[in-house]
Design brief:
With about 160 residues, the protein is of the alpha+beta class. The chain is built from 4 helices and 9 strands, in the order E-E-E-E-E-H-E-H-H-E-H-E-E. Strand 1 and strand 2 form a beta hairpin.
Length: about 160
């Protein structure tokens, strides 16, 4: 280190030029004209040539592992009664709705136990009785997201449920 060298302070955000050196004490002047005294062991010489000759090594980035579990298509539950039972004509309206409700609750429990993230519930358009029952159950669930009153609420015939 000599007079005129650019230096930086080791444990501070301060840079300056060496003005004078006495024994172990160095006086520097920062870019604003302020003068400071520091012990020689607290200063480091800023040598731009030091970095110019060092080679830059470029390493290729490793590919990030992407979980395949979250890219799966959602599990589909079709609540149309003919897809749940063999002889749909053997049941009255109340029994149909009860069986569809039980099937929905069983599927939601299955999804939670097996960490299924997405469930698509197909309720159909019809009179809206099954749709109201499905949305009634979904309102009572915690840690789920679904489109409650979307643009196609009455026309889509399905609701996509996401478990958090």
């Amino acid at each position: 280190m000599k007079i005129g060298d650019k230096v930086s302070v080791v444990d501070d955000v301060l840079k300056g030029t060496v003005l004078k050196m006495r024994a172990n004490l160095v006086t520097i002047e920062d870019e604003h004209g302020f003068k400071y005294d520091f012990p020689k062991n607290q200063l480091s010489v800023l040598d731009s040539a030091f970095y110019e000759n060092s080679a830059v090594i470029r390493k290729s980035e490793t590919s990030k592992a992407i979980s395949k579990k979250h890219n799966k298509k959602p599990l589909k539950l079709d609540l149309h009664f003919q897809s749940i039972v063999k002889n749909p004509s053997d049941y009255d309206a109340f029994e149909r709705l009860t069986i569809q409700k039980e099937k929905l609750l069983e599927t939601i429990d299955f999804c939670r136990k097996n960490n299924v993230k997405n469930l698509e519930i197909i309720h159909g358009i019809g009179d809206g009785v099954l749709q109201k029952m499905v949305y009634g159950i979904l309102e009572g669930l915690s840690n789920v997201e679904y489109d409650e009153h979307g643009f196609f609420y009455h026309e889509s015939g399905k609701v996509e449920l996401r478990f958090l």
